[in-house]
Amino acid sequence: METWDAMRARRNVRQFTDQPVPEEALDRILEAGRRTPSASNWQPWDFVLVTDRAQLVELAKVWQGAQHVARAAAAIAIVAPVPEDDRRSAILHYDLGQATYAMMVAAADQGVGTGHAAALDQDQARAVLGFPEGHFLAYLLSVGYPSDKPLRVIERLDRRPFDEVVHRGRW
After folding, report:
1. Beta bridge partners of residue 146, listed in sequence order
2. Dihedral angle, C-alpha 93, 4, 32, 159, nearest 10 °
3. Over the chain, what HEC string results?
4. Is the N or C terminus of the chain more exposed, i.e. has fewer CB atoms within 10 Å?
5. How far is it, in rounded angstroms, from Cα 144 to Cα 84?
């Protein structure tokens, strides 16, 4: 798929088939995250790839909206250092957002769906993933093949109209 098509085909997937995602595809998705630009080349992320079903089920308990993780072929846990101040927090979340989206587009490019989730229960996250103190689970990406329909360019996008969103020169 071309990059522009992958961006237009990407959607949040919450229902997955039982088909495993090949290791090469998962590595490519993770590589997209690793290559993401970050402020001052900080690279504040670590990615924990989870494919074990029992672990996915436990990981889904970190947030009320993360149930889709339990049914995915895999999940990518995006772990980061606890920011030391508000400035670092803002930079951190911007960088993590970029890494998340890069992985979502890389997945869509391969016909693999993703769904994102927050993480509230950090004790549960640490118990499942084993990340060290001073770090937290920022986001989760469920990864797998969509069970409803394959990814394709979305023609009828449920977004505000272009001319309502884009302002040129001034609001």
Report:
1. 16
2. 30
3. CCHHHHHHHCCECCCECCCCCCHHHHHHHHHHHHCCCCHHHCCCCEEEEECCHHHHHHHHHHCCCCCHHHHCCEEEEEEEECCCCHHHHHHHHHHHHHHHHHHHHHHHHCCCEEEEECCCCHHHHHHHHCCCCCEEEEEEEEEECECCCCCCCCCCCCCCCHHHHCCCCCC
4. C
5. 35
The model's pTM? 0.94
> Could you tell me the two tokens for 166?
């884009």
Structure-block tokens of residue 28: 């490519």
Give CA–CA dist 120/101, Å, rounded: 20
